[in-house]
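As promised in the previous annual report, we have extended the structural survey to additional targets. Below is the entry for Peptidase S8/S53 domain-containing protein.
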Amino acid sequence: MKSALLIGLLLCGVASAQKNKEVTTKKNQHARTQPVGVVPGQLIVKFKKKGNANGIFKQLAKAGINLSPIRELGDGSFLVEFSEDSGLSVSVLGLDVKAGGSALDALDKKTRQALDKLNKFFDIEYAEPNYVFKPYAVPNDQFYSLQWHMPKLNLPKAWDYTRGSNVVVAVLDTGQTKHPDLMPNYVTGFDFLSDPKMGGDGNGRDNDPTDVGDGGTCDDGITYENSWHGTHVDGIIAGATNNTEGVSGVGWTTKIQNLRVLGKCGGSMADIADAIRWAAGITVANMIPNPNPAKVINMSLGAYTGIACPITYQNAINDAVARGVTVVVAAGNDGKNASGSSPANCNNVIAVTAVNLNMTRAYYGNFGANVTLAAFGGDTTRDDNNDGYGDGILSDLWSEDGKEWYYAFMEGTSMATPQVSGVVALMYALKPKITPAQVKDILKKSVTVLPSGACTQGCGAGLLNAGKALELTKALP
Ligand SMILES: [Ca+2]
Ligand SMILES: [Ca+2]
Ligand SMILES: [Ca+2]
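The corresponding structure token record, generated without further manual editing, is:
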């Protein structure tokens, strides 16, 4: 009998499972606006006296400030164009408004000086930039307001860059379900479980990645309930968004490829290694080629092995990364150093640990030098935001018997990892040629630094910052 390394789910439990119709329907947040830039080459100017605008434009020109009116606005001010020699220059996305600062502080020095000059001019009541206001893309999904992790990850800003463009994320997990808030974003997956006992679907590998449940009594003598773990992970990445139902995903049009590698009592590394390669579009023996190769692989799975990364894992991961695929893995829920947790301790991966709503390391989150960064895993025993629910991550789920779909808060590095995978998919959507090395570099550079003392044992570079990551991605050549 060959021994197989069994990989368990990094699942920390379900706190408050809610049935669809019974969840408190809080009002959605309204789209907020704030100045995010200015129209280049334009200002709004108001003169003190009405009726002599042409004369004042001429006087300004004599002083070296060439303004030409585009139109008069309703309050008697003028929208004007200025020529470059007037010393005014700003770009649309050039404003980096600091906390406590203003958009004016964020203008470049030359423009500030020119505005000051105009504002001191005797006949001018005021001159100001023509700000660009944009709605933060806030989706209309029913329970978006309970998804506290979304704004805290700066996702609305990321959605101003892209909401996805059909980038495929392969989710190596328990398989897919017919959850209505998820199905629109599926592409063809596969059932990689070669052991029919683990699969529970009467056969070995087949082309139906349906999650038939992973409950049962295992070698440890414990009887596990069906987890529907893959469904919850899928929803975090790409729950059908802006459809007025349920939750929102990190990517609005990101595609999910469910590769079923976890069944009853877990899944084997050999199956997982095959799934990693197939996801990346690499030929796998006795398998049809993947019709929709993925750019991102999400593995909210692992085990505390206490050993170095197994070679089988490392080789499969290396092959996928060599194909330009980014591999995102959970750091594990052992509350220990991730150096003993695989695949988090493999090279070439992005390993994700979990923090609470208050940005301190979650009690279960693995830590240490192998961790790349943190995202929100939450803690369902706390309610720091006083919304009446434990502070987990809200996503799609089913009742234990698989008969009723609903939405539920869960916690774990399993929930933090798909937040990173979802953002990585947005990065690929914006720059399809981005490399895994660039992805990792940008994720680390763009983090929100954790508060002092929040993770003394090491949560990597800090907390995932989606908006900043997309901004840096946009700036790539
Ligand atoms: Ca099967
Ligand atoms: Ca939805
Ligand atoms: Ca709460």
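Residues 1-36, 89-95 have pLDDT under 50 and may be disordered. The pocket of calcium ion (ligand 3) is lined by residues 383, 385, 387, 389, 391 (CB under 6 Å). These points will be discussed at the next consortium meeting with the crystallography subgroup.
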